[in-house]
């Protein structure tokens, strides 16, 4: 079943153009990638957060309010960031808050830890969240700040850890290992996030270019279709009316010229209305097409017989309209180039399967293969018009005359 042109036009109008205010469609892949990164960060950070919380509850902190403050300052923003990542709202805000607060908490760590705890082998619970702070910066900050966090935070942790151990040799060894590990891991995570975002941005850009190219091609095709329709209209109606007016000598001929001019002006005024040009889709039979062909003969001042053969023949109204207009153009060509000599028209119905119209004359004929692209009387008014309604048009011509066979069959 063919699609409704109005539905197609409505659907096409809902596709946002590149550069428009509505960029949700254009950044579809980028938005999905941000959502995926947020969920992955939430899962990994939750695992490390639980590990850090267990370690914090079992580590010897100071007995005053400093331990409660540092725990609340780290884990409350962390919990807010995890919730934001899971629900997909406020991710950048809460991730940025945690990234900044964690750096401050890390810097204040020497004032909170128990001064008697100087074991270099036992990593403090805050160490487990170093890379969580890095991925929080990845979700919240621009690329330069992301790499600054990934490169700077391990060294902040290392300095704090050395201060805690009073820069002893055993602390240097373990701290160097921890710093190098977190530094490499943080840079890798930031690089992966940048790579995934770049790929998503490339996909969105390619989609935008494809939509733009398709929009340009569709606009060009619509303009060309309108140009062909207008050219066919001008050739069929306006030019025919002008020729008839020029050749009108008697009262009857002048009346016919006036009627043709009136019809041409009406069709020209309604050129943007598809229904006005093509008619409705109500089925039309062979008898009605014969009536239209006889009317065309009368308007063109031609004398010929329109023969009706076969069954009733029913085809959609738009196809019938195109068939009549193409046959009218063939009749006009026969009158103009063959003087109407031997003009004979046959309309043959094939029941519900279709209708065929044959227009023949006994003129001098012409070379069909040499028809120029600018000959709209044949290219646009006959061939293109029938092709536009999924019909067929065949032209055979030699020195004995010309035969134009037009048809529409239900597929």
List keywords for this structure.
12 helices, Heat Shock Protein 90, five-stranded mixed sheet, 10% strand, two-stranded antiparallel ribbon, 411 residues, 7 strands, disordered N terminus, alpha+beta, 64% helix
Topology record:
Blueprint: H1 5-13, H2 28-58, H3 66-87, H4 91-107, H5 130-140, H6 143-164, H7 169-247, H8 251-269, H9 274-278, E1 284-285, H10 286-300, E2 305-310, E3 314-315, H11 317-338, E4 344-349, E5 354-361, H12 376-388, E6 392-398, E7 401-409
Parallel strand pairs: 2-4
Antiparallel strand pairs: 1-3, 4-5, 5-7, 6-7
Shape: rod-shaped
Largest sheet: 5 strands, mixed
Number of strands: 7
Helix content: 55-70%
**What count of structural domains?**
2
- What's the order of the H and E elements? HHHHHHHHHEHEEHEEHEE
Rg from Cα: 41 Å
Instruction: Give me the number of helical elements.
Output: 12
Largest sheet strand order: 2-4-5-7-6
Which spans have pLDDT < 50 for at least 5 consecutive residues? Answer: 1-6, 11-25, 272-279
Give a quick precis of the structure.
The chain has 411 residues and is α+β, with helices and mostly antiparallel strands. The chain is 64% helix and 10% strand.
């Amino acid at each position: 079943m063919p699609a409704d042109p109005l539905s197609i036009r409505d659907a096409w109008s809902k596709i946002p153009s590149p550069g428009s205010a509505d960029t949700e469609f254009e950044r579809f892949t980028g938005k999905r990638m941000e959502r995926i990164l947020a969920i992955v960060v939430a899962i990994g950070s939750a695992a490390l957060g639980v590990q850090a919380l267990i370690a914090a509850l079992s580590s010897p902190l100071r007995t005053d309010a400093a331990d409660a403050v540092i725990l609340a300052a780290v884990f409350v923003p962390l919990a807010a960031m995890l919730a934001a990542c899971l629900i997909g709202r406020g991710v950048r805000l809460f991730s940025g808050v945690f990234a900044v607060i964690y750096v401050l908490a890390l810097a204040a760590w020497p004032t909170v830890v128990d001064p008697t705890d100087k074991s270099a082998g036992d990593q403090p619970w805050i160490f487990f969240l170093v890379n969580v702070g890095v991925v929080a910066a990845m979700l919240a900050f621009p690329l330069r700040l992301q790499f600054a966090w990934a490169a700077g935070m391990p060294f902040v942790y290392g300095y704090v850890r050395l201060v805690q151990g009073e820069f002893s040799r055993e602390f240097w060894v373990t701290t160097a290992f921890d710093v190098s590990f977190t530094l490499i891991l943080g840079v890798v995570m930031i690089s992966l996030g940048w790579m995934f975002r770049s790929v998503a941005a490339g996909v969105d850009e390619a989609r935008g270019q494809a939509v733009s190219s398709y929009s340009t091609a569709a606009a060009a095709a619509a303009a060309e279709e309108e140009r062909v329709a207008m050219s066919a209209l001008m050739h069929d109606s306006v030019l025919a009316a002008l020729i008839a007016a020029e050749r009108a000598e008697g009262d009857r001929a002048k009346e016919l010229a006036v009627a043709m001019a009136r019809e041409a002006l009406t069709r020209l005024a309604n050129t943007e209305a598809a229904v006005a040009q093509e008619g409705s889709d109500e089925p039309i039979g062979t008898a009605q097409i014969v009536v239209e062909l006889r009317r065309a003969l009368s308007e063109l001042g031609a004398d010929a017989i329109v023969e009706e053969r076969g069954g009733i023949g029913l085809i959609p109204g738009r196809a019938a309209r195109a068939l009549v207009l193409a046959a009218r153009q063939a009749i006009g060509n026969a009158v103009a180039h063959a003087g109407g000599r031997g003009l004979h028209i046959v309309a043959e119905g094939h029941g519900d399967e279709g209708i065929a119209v044959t227009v023949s004359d006994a003129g001098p004929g012409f070379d069909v293969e040499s028809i120029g692209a600018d000959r709209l009387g044949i290219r646009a008014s006959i061939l293109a018009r029938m092709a536009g309604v999924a019909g067929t048009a065949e032209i055979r011509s030699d020195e004995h005359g010309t035969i134009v066979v037009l048809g529409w069959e239900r597929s």
